[in-house]
Amino acid sequence: MNLKVKVMNPREYTEDEVRKLFLDHVKSLVEYVEKQPMDSKEKLNRLAFCILSTIDGSSMDFPAFILAPYPSEGDKQFYIDNDKNYYPENNSPNVNCDIAGNLHELFYNE
Questions:
Q1: How far apart (Å, rounded) are the C-alpha atoms in residues 62 and 21?
Q2: pTM of the model
């Protein structure tokens, strides 16, 4: 994403465009961190920090993203049956442009 590039008719990004922009950004972070003069653990920590910063909205090119648990149907009862705490449900249809779900699969496919 380049905020310096102006468009003739500004519009809202599509879900696919946002997903691609996000994945491209993560790939650029991988390239950036890989070139840093650090050991492997420091690189991994830096990469995790950069990705989390992007999600939190600390990147100049992206807004903050919504990140919330989205348990599968039956998860709550499974945890209860196994005497475990369970995650809150977030089944709201009011989330717009949800790019999550298969990012890990798309990461290597583009």
A1: 9
A2: 0.83
Beta carbons within 10 angstroms of residue 82's beta carbon = 8
In whole angstroms, what is the distance from residue 12 CA to residue 86 CA?
Answer: 36
At 12 the pLDDT is 96
Angle 69-74-76 (CA atoms, 0-180°, nearest 5)?
55
3-class state of residue 16 by DSSP:
helix
- Rounded distance between C-alpha atoms, residue 1 and residue 26, angstroms: 12
| Model pLDDT, residue 2 | 57
Long-range contacts of 31-38 (CB under 8 A, 24+ apart): none
Closest CA to 99 of 4, 16, 5: 16
